Amino acid sequence: MHQGFSGTQAADVVGISYRQLDYWARTNLVRPSGCDAAGSGSRRVYSYRDLLELRVIKNLLDAGIKLESVREVFNYLRSHVDTEIAAAHIVISGQSVVLCQGDQLVDVLRNGQGVLNVLPLSGVKDQVDTQIVRLEKASAPAIAPAKSLDIAL
């Protein structure tokens, strides 16, 4: 498996544009933990865990949560969830986000109550793994058939 993923690979695996990825890194939503950009010509390197976090962010945005709220959710998750973030259970109610911790529900954004829709995050790992396999297959060099050598003894 990879030691790290370039920004282009990370964006492709997660299903976002490179521009989105760049913006999220520059605004400290998800900084690449492998290697951060340090000026012109340097490259960011994202870890597998970064890809999982990026996919969770994309899922929250796709569910209609505003980017500012996603930032609040991630600040809370990073400081209160001991396990992998992709293993967390999040319930979305309109613009409210509730974290299921054991037998407790924590309103992460403190926005009140409403109809609860569950956004399962367990599939995030599978989504990222599938895209990594696809990426590796696409970048694998084609193996040329071996040539037979005729050696006269």
Structure description:
The protein has one domain (5-139): Multidrug-efflux Transporter Regulator, Chain: A, Domain 2, CATH 1.10.1660. 41% of the residues lie in helices and 14% in strands. It is built from 5 helices and 6 strands, in the order E-H-H-E-H-H-E-E-E-E-H. The protein is globular, with a radius of gyration of 20 Å. The mean pLDDT is 79.
List key phrases describing it.
alpha+beta, Multidrug-efflux Transporter Regulator, Chain: A, Domain 2, two-stranded antiparallel ribbon, 5 helices, 41% helix
Please give a quick description of this structure.
Helices cover 41% and strands 14% of the residues.
What is the mean pLDDT? 79
Q: What is the topology, as strand order, of the major beta sheet?
A: 5-4-3-6
> What does the main sheet amount to?
4 strands, antiparallel
What sequence of helices (H) and strands (E) makes up the elements? EHHEHHEEEEH
- CATH architecture level-2 label: Orthogonal Bundle
Number of helices: 5
Distance between the termini: 44 Å
Low-confidence stretches: none
Structural class comes to alpha+beta
Q: How many beta-strand elements?
A: 6
Number of domains: 1
